[in-house]
Design brief:
The chain is α+β, with helices and mostly antiparallel strands and 324 residues long. Helices cover 48% and strands 8% of the residues.
Length: 324
């Protein structure tokens, strides 16, 4: 029986989560459907565009994504600190970028005076909006519902387009985050859809590579901020160059038709994470098969289960075997 969302997410333990949504019925987002002969490639652009739009509104950072033919992978980071700093006006403005908002909110944003009772009511409403704008379930709902309606209109039908629930995995430490990001970015490589990361359309790694060529980082994605140090800015604690080299090296090793080896920078990253190359390849090849629930060291997994009152540590054996 599926667990309620509140028993799967613990911001006390981690802000990072791996989410997967799958499509139902004979519906595709890329390529040609052998049954109907129709191409649905353009729908991948719908999903990517909506993702980037939501990332600019929600207090949820996009770390990695891959839009595949019949499913979607995301690595997300909930930024509760930033959300709690938003002013009343910013919360209402962000909410109305996606939803209609209340009459009181529209009056407030238009500069009209409100009575004390009206203002108190608006403050209560804004706190509900604030919670929703840093909630992964609301993020996925805001992504999936418009895409489903658009696809149903195009197909001239009704009914579900996505599975009833998206899958969510807590990523409890930086090794789990990095491995999951690489796993997501390498989806087209493993599937044989693309030969290289830069040719992997509708993925975060392609967007990062295009930005890196210009000497920049992709503004829509959570940035890499280098190794941990004092006064660290918000971001992923690796360098963008090292991560892209890691994905390139791993992609070559995962394919039988390409020669590859672990470079010095990649070896240094794996040594820092205290993980051997063989274990790294297993993680980036079979991440979702190895782990059905939270991912991290045995210590982190135990704390996570304790905080959520879970008796069973799902995936403990693989966590202990593959993650030091």
């Amino acid at each position: 029986m599926p667990r309620p969302r509140y028993t799967q997410e613990s911001l006390e333990d981690t802000p990072f989560y791996h989410c997967i949504s799958r499509f139902v019925r004979r519906a595709f987002l890329c390529g040609v459907d052998d049954y109907s002969g129709k191409s649905y490639e353009h729908r991948r652009d719908w999903v990517e565009s909506r993702l980037l739009e939501l990332g600019a509104v929600f207090a949820i950072d996009l770390c990695a994504y891959a839009v595949m033919s019949n499913h979607l992978h995301l690595v997300l980071r909930v930024d509760a600190v930033t959300a709690n700093r938003w002013s009343l006006e910013e919360v209402l403005t962000r909410w109305q970028q996606l939803f209609g908002g209340t009459l009181l909110a529209k009056r407030f944003l238009a500069g009209e005076p409100l009575s004390e009772i009206e203002r108190l009511s608006l403050l209560e409403t804004a706190e509900v909006y604030r919670e929703r704008l840093m909630d992964i379930s609301w993020f996925m709902r805001s992504l999936n519902e418009p895409i489903a309606r658009q696809a149903n209109r195009e197909d001239g039908c009704k009914g579900r387009f996505w599975e009833g629930r998206f899958k969510s995995q807590a990523l409890l430490d930086e090794t789990a985050v990095l491995a999951c990001m690489a796993y997501v970015d390498l989806n087209p490589i493993r599937a044989g859809i693309a030969p290289t990361p830069e040719q992997s359309d509708f993925t975060s790694v392609q967007r990062r590579i295009k930005a890196a060529i210009q000497g920049e980082q992709a503004p829509e994605l959570m940035p890499f901020v280098g190794n941990e140090r004092r006064n660290m800015p918000e971001g992923l604690h690796f360098s963008a160059q090292d991560y892209l080299q890691l994905v390139e090296d791993t992609g070559r090793l995962l394919r039988d038709d390409k020669r590859g080896s672990i470079s010095a920078s990649t070896q240094a990253m794996l040594s820092r994470l205290n993980i051997c190359p063989d274990n790294w390849l297993k993680l980036t090849k079979d991440f979702t098969r190895l782990f059905k629930g939270p991912v991290g060291t045995l210590e982190e997994l135990s704390l996570y289960c304790e905080h959520l009152s879970r008796r069973r540590r799902q995936g403990a054996a693989n966590c202990q075997r593959l993650l030091c």
